[in-house]
Specification:
alpha/beta; binds oxa(dethia)-CoA
């Protein structure tokens, strides 16, 4: 049995020093989509809460979005790339099969001394990234970490499938974490879970080793995301509620202590349903899916950056990040900002 975090004697904690986000300029409205597939603004808004999403052009890639968000986070934290010891990029739409997207970000930031790698946990990727960085920083051996969630999901979207193409957008969000030994709490607790048995609920099968690029696909649709929306919907609500509840219990906190729940933005109805079950009032649940759609691993850091910039979160507030996505994966971070 683990001890409560309040009992921990860890001399170092991972504290958020800065944040930033970036989305491409091009927007796609629901009305634009209604010209491409049999759908309507009314259906999309009513079923998902999405009104507009930002999409990349052919010249904009995941590393580009990640780097732009990272630069903003570094400026906010008042450090440079050269100060970074660790870069984690959470993405399922990497720059290339290899090297990692994090290598491109490291190069662009001239973060010469940083250890860098990608995390593949889909929509939960940023939560995983924070949880992993926390371990590095609490060891005291790493001082400054950059965690980025960056996606270009519209590059693997089937624009002829109305059940999925209305959901996704592109973007990136980043935070800089610092290992502090001054008594601040920072990341109080992180939890990361998965159920690989349910991989088929959400996937994109090309071009890994099972379906390599050098061989013709048995189904050309495998280059696109496949989602079983209803399955995911039910699991997402259940897992997010369970995860937030158990995380708060573990930290000896209640929903009354939370200033803001920042959930992965997959569907406004999913977030609202989870919030209702958690008995969280609407002012404690941040929703911006109307303007970005589902940006997978980027959605939590983009929402967090907006909350900070709008003054909805102040230093010392307790906030919770929670996400659920392909894998299936899910997780949460409990943070004193
Ligand atoms: O972050 C992880 C990835 N995200 C997800 O996996 C999304 C999670 N799931 C969802 O957000 C929701 O399940 C959806 C938004 C995908 C679908 O909403 P829903 O309320 O679960 O709708 P549904 O799948 O039950 O479909 C209802 C009806 C169907 O027609 P019938 O069978 O009732 O005649 C669909 O064919 O809506 C139809 N439909 C559409 N109609 C207009 C499905 N997509 C559309 C569309 N426009 N774009």
């Amino acid at each position: 049995m683990h001890k409560s975090p309040d009992d921990w004697t860890a001399p170092y904690r991972a504290v958020i020093k800065g944040c930033g986000s970036f989305v491409p300029a091009k927007v796609l409205t629901n009305d634009d989509l209604a010209k491409m597939v049999d759908t309507s603004d009314e259906w999309i808004t009513g079923r998902t809460g999405i009104k507009v999403r930002h999409i990349t052009t052919d010249n904009e890639s995941t590393a580009f979005l990640a780097t732009e968000a990272a630069k903003r986070a570094l400026t906010d934290a008042n450090i440079t790339g050269g100060d970074l010891d660790l870069i984690i990029v959470a993405t399922i739409t990497p720059e290339m099969v290899f090297p990692s997207t994090a290598c491109f970000v490291q190069s662009a930031l001239q973060a010469k001394k940083a250890c860098v790698f990608d995390v593949t946990a889909a929509c939960s990727g940023f939560i995983y990234g924070i949880g992993i960085a926390q371990q590095f920083l609490e060891s005291g051996r790493y001082k400054n970490a950059l965690v980025v969630g960056a996606e270009t999901l519209t590059k693997i979207t089937d624009w002829s499938d109305r059940t999925s193409c209305i959901l996704f957008g592109d973007g990136a969000g980043a935070v800089v974490l610092e290992s502090c030994g001054d008594g601040r709490r920072g990341i109080i607790y992180s939890t990361m879970s998965a159920d690989g048995d349910s991989w088929q609920s959400l996937n994109c099968q090309a071009y890994g080793s099972r379906h390599p690029a050098c061989k013709e696909l048995d189904d050309p649709k495998k280059i696109y995301m496949e989602i079983r929306g209803r399955e995911v919907y039910q699991q997402a609500v259940r897992r997010m509620v369970e995860t937030v509840t158990s995380s708060l219990d573990y930290c000896n906190l209640t929903t009354d202590d939370i200033k803001m729940l920042i959930s992965h933005q997959m569907n406004a109805r999913i977030i609202e349903s989870a919030a209702k079950r958690l008995k969280l009032p609407t002012e404690k649940v941040y929703i911006n899916i109307d303007r970005y759609g589902n940006t997978s691993s980027a959605s939590v850091p983009i929402a967090f950056d907006e909350c900070v910039k709008k003054g909805k979160i102040k230093r010392g507030d307790i906030i919770v990040f929670v996400a659920f996505g392909a894998g299936l994966t899910w997780g949460a971070n409990v943070i004193q900002y």
